Amino acid sequence: MKSIADMSVEELAGLVCETLAKAGVTTTLTGGACVSIWSDGNYVSRDLDFIEEGPVTRRQVKDALKKIGFTEKHRYFVHPDTEFFVEFPTGPLTVGDERVHKVAIRDTDAGRLRLLSPTDCIKDRLAAFFYWNDKMAFEQALLVAKSQSIDFEDLSSWAKAEGESKKFAEFKKAQALDPNAVDVVLELGRLERRADPRVRRPRPDTLGASRRLRTRGGGGGEGRMG
User: Fold this and answer.
1) Rounded CA Rg of the chain
2) Is the pTM of this model over 0.90?
3) How many helices (H) and strands (E) would you count in the chain?
4) Could you give the CA distance from residue 198 to residue 200 in angstroms, rounded to a whole number?
5) Is residue 156 within 8 Å of 51, Cβ to Cβ?
6) Which of 35, 76, 112, 167 is the most buried (most CB within 10 A)?
7) pLDDT the model gives residue 221
8) Local confidence band at 176 (pLDDT 50, 70, 90 cut-offs)
9) What is the pLDDT of residues 86-106, one digit of tens each?
């Protein structure tokens, strides 16, 4: 097995997921790291967000991750040999207001990884676009759709249930463009943020951008959602 310093985001996530599983803790990778994996590396996130299943104590997680060299620092777990850090947002595992019951499995050289499917990864990103008008999350959803096979019927039904069919139509229109045109849309978004520093991304304190978070004011600051 590679050293942690040489691991990709997917390999490190697999190591963390399997290490926790061996300690009796079931977790699923969410957020920007899923975008990185499903977009074939066209988006980079240093934050590995895992949602735990069932009652799990912080001590269980801390003891398990200590075995592979991670130490707790504030709300994160960090490792001296990598820039990636691990976080455990509050569950349950949801995309918007929808509970996730089926996850994707990917076997890596470092361990078995549970993560959101490409379709649910897009839901997770679009939720931020729907409720906070997060343009970067919109672009991340496009990156995944460009790289993976997506269940658009499921996406459409989900968006309707979230009450956001109109905004979903914007995504579907952009996704249907020629791949080169999609690249132009993505580049224009990057240029817009570079030109206007006020174009920021809210960071939720829990997974997804659900309506109930929006009514509480959501997160804050300019950190990555992923």
Assistant:
1) 17
2) no
3) 9, 9
4) 6
5) no
6) 35
7) 29
8) confident
9) 999 999 999 999 999 999 999
Q: What is the pLDDT of residue 205?
A: 38
For the chain, the distance separating the N- and C-terminal CA atoms, rounded to the nearest angstrom, is: 26
Token duo for residue 193:
């943020």
How far is Cα 148 from Cα 160, in angstroms, rounded to an integer?
Answer: 22
C-alpha span between 133 and 111 (Å, rounded)? 36
Total number of residues shown for the chain: 226
pLDDT at position 47: 96
Distance CA 10, CA 16 (A): 10
Burial class (CB in 10 A: 0-12, 13-18, 19+), 58: exposed
If DSSP codes are grouped into helix, strand and coil, which group holds residue 32? helix
Question: Whole-angstrom Cα distance, residue 102 to residue 120?
Answer: 9
